[in-house]
Every structure is written in C-alpha cells, then in structure tokens.
C-alpha cells in the first residue's frame, strides 16, 4: 500500500492521476480529524514494513518518519511544480505539475534533493538542451510563469536608473525556514536597498500574501521606506520586462529572471543558486558544478517534475501543459464570464479558509 500524509482533502482527486504507476486501490490518504492521530490511523489502515510513504512538502510526521526509517520504507516528498496553473494554489486551484522527490525536496538545501542530484550529475545531451532552449523561449514569448494570475501591463520606470525587482514571499513557507534562515520580506527589502543604494527598487508582494491567504504582508508605507514603488495586481512579466536585476531570498522569480537574462542576487539558497549563474550571499559545498542556463532549465523544467494534462487526466510533457496554459490564460483574459466565475470561486475559497483558520485557532 501507498500512504499519503499531509495531503489536504481537496488535493485527493487531482493527485491520483499523477501516480499512474500505482493502482488507485493501493492509494491511502491519511487525514485524521486530529492531526496527532495520523500514525494510529495509518496503522489501523494497514501501514506495515511493505508500505511506501508520501508526504506533502516538508510537513512533519515524526512517528511515521521514524517508523519508515526503522523498517527501511521509502519516503517521497511531493510538492507543486514550477509551472503550476492559472490561479493560486492557496485558492485551491488544481496544479498541472508536481515534483516527487525520493531524496529530499528542492526548496530544502540542508540535504540533497533529486533536483540537486540531477543538476550536479546529469549528462545533458544536445537534443535535451535544444528542447530546453525552446521551452525557455516559449515561456518568455507567451509570458508564462508559475501562477499566470494577473494581466501584464507596461510599467513606466525611470530611464536613468538601474531597476531592481524585490519579490515578496510567504514568510512561513518552508523554503524560507530551510533556505533563508527565516528571513522576512522587510529584512530582504532592507538588504536590497543596502546593496543597491542608487537603484529604483520595485517591491512586488507574493500573490498568496496579497490576497490574504498566507503570511508576509508589509504595510505599503513601510515598504516604501526602502522601495521606490510597490506593484500588486500586475503580471510578473510586467516587472521583469523593465527590471535589470532581481534581489530575492529563495523565490522562483529568481529562476524566471535568469531565463530572461536578468542579474539575480540571492540572500538564501534556492535551487538555482550555487551553480555559477547567480550572485549568492550563502554557499553550498555540495554544489560544485558550473551549469549553463539551458542546463539549469533542462534539469528543472524537463527532468525533475511530472506534468498532467488536466483535461485527459494523464501524464504528459511540459510542452503540452504550456499550450494548455496559454489557451486557458487567453480565455481568462478574453471571456468576462470565465474571469467572474474564477474570482467568485476564489472569493468563496478564501472566506472558507479564513473561517477554518479562526475555528482552528479557537480550538
């Protein structure tokens, strides 16, 4: 049997098609009403020395992790991929890609992940690199990124200053805890200003924070003590188009900026740092290889993730997902009814999640 821990109820249906190698009857989600009962429930449902364990992200399940270690069970960490959807994960939008990692997880630099192992050891051939270059060009041409939520506009910025983008992040996110020593968005802004004194700094809050789903908000007046401008509901491409550089903790925006030829300064240890492509405050002794940008793209977007065709519910290639996202994004922009429907769904989702958080805190 295959036991899935930390997968919230709404994830159950979309997760199954990502694992065609597993019989549906062999997938068991463990979601006790009280989290502390997860191990008891798993044992009751047959967890034994022949089981395989899947855990969402870096969620901690110490009893099952200890059991797995004792009985040499395989543990896989699962997380959203880098090309995800039109819409936010925190709005319960189905992802079109997942990563399934048998070593660690890409955003935790304290241990080797499958992605780090790929980037350190893979023999990238010419055919794969050519494919990666086409994908890179397509992403730029179609202005696609992880969430593809907001429309792109032309930003008016000074012509005589260096433009620096500082992307905000979710402050309680595991990538910050493990990859940036718990740094805050405000601390990042202060460091960016110290290291780019004369630049025109644009601060872009994380979309999950902006809509109130996650932690990390900075009052605009506070942000403007260190930034020259705060932009909110505009597409990432709008800012990357005018930016010369990105200063970030561990944000995926740094990777997207690299693909667009921007300078990237990291204050944490994201998966794309340490390979000779970024200017890094921290360093990893494990990352000894110097990569080309197209090698980084190949390992990160082609080899590491799994992609799902959301219409057919079957695994597919990244190119198929990009075509689907392009069409969905165009439909979202051109069809008012589609936009209203999604915004209404998101509004209800956010209110429901807020209500559940309040109930949990009171409990």
CATH class of the domain at 146-287: Alpha Beta
- Strand share of the residues? 5-15%
Biggest pleated-sheet summary = 7 strands, mixed
From the alpha carbons, calculate the radius of gyration and give it in angstroms: 21 Å
Oligomer: single chain
Taken in chain order, the helices and strands follow as EHEHEHEEHHEHHEHHEHEHEEHEEHH
List the helices and strands and how they pair.
Layout: E1 2-5, H1 12-15, E2 27-30, H2 38-44, E3 52-56, H3 62-70, E4 75-80, E5 97-101, H4 114-121, H5 126-141, E6 163-167, H6 174-179, H7 185-195, E7 200-204, H8 207-210, H9 220-223, E8 229-230, H10 236-240, E9 245-248, H11 252-259, E10 263-266, E11 279-280, H12 293-303, E12 305-309, E13 314-316, H13 318-334, H14 336-362
Parallel strand pairs: 1-2, 1-3, 3-4, 6-7, 6-9, 7-8, 9-10, 10-11
Antiparallel strand pairs: 4-5, 5-12, 12-13
Structure characterization notes:
This protein is an alpha/beta fold. The protein has a domain at 146-287: Rossmann fold. The protein contains 14 helices and 13 strands. It has helices at 12-15, 38-44, 62-70, 114-121, 126-141, 174-179, 185-195, 207-210, 220-223, 236-240, 252-259, 293-303, 318-334, 336-362; strands at residues 2-5, 27-30, 52-56, 75-80, 97-101, 163-167, 200-204, 229-230, 245-248, 263-266, 279-280, 305-309, 314-316. A 7-stranded mixed β-sheet has the order 2-1-3-4-5-12-13. A 6-stranded parallel β-sheet has the order 8-7-6-9-10-11, with helices on both faces. Strand 12 and strand 13 form a beta hairpin. Helix 5 packs across helix 12. The longest helix has 27 residues, at 336-362. Residues 88-92 and 353-363 have low confidence and may be disordered.
């Amino acid at each position: 049997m295959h036991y899935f821990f930390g997968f919230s109820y709404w994830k159950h249906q979309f997760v199954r098609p990502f694992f065609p190698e597993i019989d549906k009857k062999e997938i068991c989600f463990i979601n006790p009403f009280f989290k502390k009962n997860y191990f008891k429930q798993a044992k009751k449902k047959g967890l034994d020395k022949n089981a395989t364990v899947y855990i969402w992200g870096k969620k901690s399940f110490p009893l099952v992790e200890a059991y797995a270690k004792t009985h040499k069970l395989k543990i896989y960490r699962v997380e959203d991929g880098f090309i995800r959807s039109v819409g936010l994960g925190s709005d319960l939008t189905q992802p079109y890609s997942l990563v399934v990692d048998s070593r660690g997880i890409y955003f935790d630099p304290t241990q080797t992940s499958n992605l780090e192992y790929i980037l350190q050891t893979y023999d990238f051939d010419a055919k794969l690199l050519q494919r990666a270059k086409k994908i890179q060009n397509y992403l730029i041409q179609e202005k696609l990124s992880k969430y593809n939520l907001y429309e792109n506009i032309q930003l008016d910025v000074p012509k005589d200053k260096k433009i620096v983008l500082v992307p905000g992040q979710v402050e309680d996110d595991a990538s910050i805890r493990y990859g940036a020593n718990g740094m805050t968005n405000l601390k990042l802004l202060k460091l960016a200003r110290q290291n780019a004194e004369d630049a025109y700094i644009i601060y872009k809050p994380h979309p999950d924070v902006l809509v109130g789903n996650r932690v990390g908000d900075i009052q605009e007046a506070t942000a403007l003590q260190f930034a020259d401008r705060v932009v909110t509901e505009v597409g990432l491409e709008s800012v990357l188009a005018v930016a010369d550089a990105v200063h970030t903790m561990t944000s995926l925006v740094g990777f997207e900026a690299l693909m667009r030829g921007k300078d990237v300064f990291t204050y944490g240890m994201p998966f794309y740092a340490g390979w000779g492509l970024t200017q890094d405050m921290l360093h990893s002794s494990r990352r000894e290889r110097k990569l080309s940008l197209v090698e980084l793209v190949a390992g990160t977007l082609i080899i590491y993730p799994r992609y799902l065709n959301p219409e057919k519910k079957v695994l597919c290639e990244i190119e198929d997902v990009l075509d689907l996202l392009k069409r969905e994004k165009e439909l979202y922009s051109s069809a008012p009814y589609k936009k209203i429907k999604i915004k209404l769904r998101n509004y209800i989702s956010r209110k429901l999640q807020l209500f559940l958080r309040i109930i949990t805190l009171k409990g």
